[in-house]
Amino acid sequence: MQPNFDKQSQRLEFRHKRDQFVDALSPQDRALAFSSVPSPMAQYLLPGKIVAGYIAIGSEVNPAALLTQAHKMGCDIALPHVTSKTAPMRFLRWTPGDDLVPGPFGLQQPAEDAPLCTPDVVLAPLVAFDARLMRLGQGAGHYDRALSLLDQAVVIGLAWSVQHAPALASDIWDMPLDAILTEKSWMTL
To answer: Chain-centre distance of CA 8, in angstroms?
Structure first.
């Protein structure tokens, strides 16, 4: 059987796999996954660095524990702020525990008046990834556009192991990741 090589089909397939996988996890396994910073990732979480994360939606990997630990390690934290499908995504400072406001697409994000910042490390959500460390996102291009401007940032995709695709459709504007963290492993090229 030929794998699907169009992004829309791959998004449907891997969202379904992710949902089924997360639904089958025990509450204990779900709580343990991504609950501590692995040593390969810790090398990037130095005091004073800005680490951008996100607030998980649905079965996405929840980076809350990683962001809390990065903050305790002396990092400043940022979250994406989106206003529309076409407007650029910005990263705004946020401290774990601070209030969030509703944004488009079901997002929870910092208020628009939070300080703008440039992340040194970006923890990126994704729908699927492949061995080339290409990331399949939700389809609006927010992360690809933002990452294209952050050429010095280390970009780490957070995914469940079932989101590993044999190959992903990609376009010239798709930005590769520097690493992937799953509940089972740390991957780099």
So the answer is: 19
To the nearest 5 percent, what fractions of the chain are helix, strand and coil?
25, 20, 55
Among 2.60.40.10, 3.30.365.10, 3.40.50.10420, 3.40.190.170, name the CATH number for the domain at 7-187. 3.40.50.10420
pLDDT reading at 1 higher than 70: no
Find the length of the chain. 189
CA separation for the pair 182, 12 (Å, rounded): 20
Nearest-Å Rg of the Cα atoms of the chain is 16
Beta bridge partners of 179: 156
Q: Which of 154, 146, 153 is nearest to 173 (CA)?
A: 146
- Helix (H) or strand (E) holding 11, with range, is helix 7-24
For the question of whether the overall pTM of this predicted structure is more than 0.85, the answer is yes
- Residue 12's CB: how many other CB atoms inside 10 A? 12
| In the chain, domain spans | 7-187
DSSP H or E segment with residue 40 = helix 39-42
At 153, the pLDDT band (50, 70, 90 cuts) reads very high
pLDDT at 140: 80
